[in-house]
């Protein structure tokens, strides 16, 4: 289980694969697409399994949101908002650019992935801005990143991530209604509601345990 700083994921995932070990690597897989492909190639070459720690796809209410992306029970998705973050300062290597630190690489993957699995699509355009309220702490990496993803059919996702705010919200607006998860990326207690009165009750099992199983 590779739980090292992001910049070391590729190196040690490849070492593990070359040793004949199955690889479970924490998110994000690696800072660059090239390194991600190197991990995939090493695992394929050595005949070992590879899993990335995107645990939310193994959570029951998240799976409902993913299903609704296909079935469109509230009509076509028009826009969504996804925000993930926490207020912190003693963040260790997450404050170091060389180690792959910053809010986007840490918490931003939740917002990014939520936009993808909520629509069932890959974005075709992205714009983003970085900002900080505490430059004395965040002098190498982003404290806050706001980004907009554009999908086909005119769907827009307004996303944010931060080490300076407590954020944990996913909202999807459709032609004929809406639904949300609040919180949407907690280790427990993910819950939500839809405009037709449907209540998405918390799922009790540990998401990482379900993923491993």
CATH level-two architecture of the largest domain = 2-Layer Sandwich
Q: How can the largest sheet be summarized?
A: 8 strands, mixed
CATH superfamily membership of the largest domain: Dihydrodipicolinate Reductase, domain 2
- Shape estimate: globular
- Total number of beta strands: 10
Write structural notes for this entry.
Helix content is 27%, strand content 28%. The chain has six helices and ten strands. A hairpin with a 4-residue loop joins strand 9 and strand 10. With 213 residues, it is an alpha+beta fold. It has two domains: 6-52, Rossmann fold (3-Layer(aba) Sandwich), CATH 3.40.50; 57-207, 2-Layer Sandwich (Dihydrodipicolinate Reductase, domain 2). The strands form two sheets. It has an eight-stranded mixed β-sheet with strand order 4-5-6-3-7-8-9-10, with helices on one face. It has a two-stranded parallel ribbon with strand order 1-2. Helix 1 runs parallel beside helix 2.
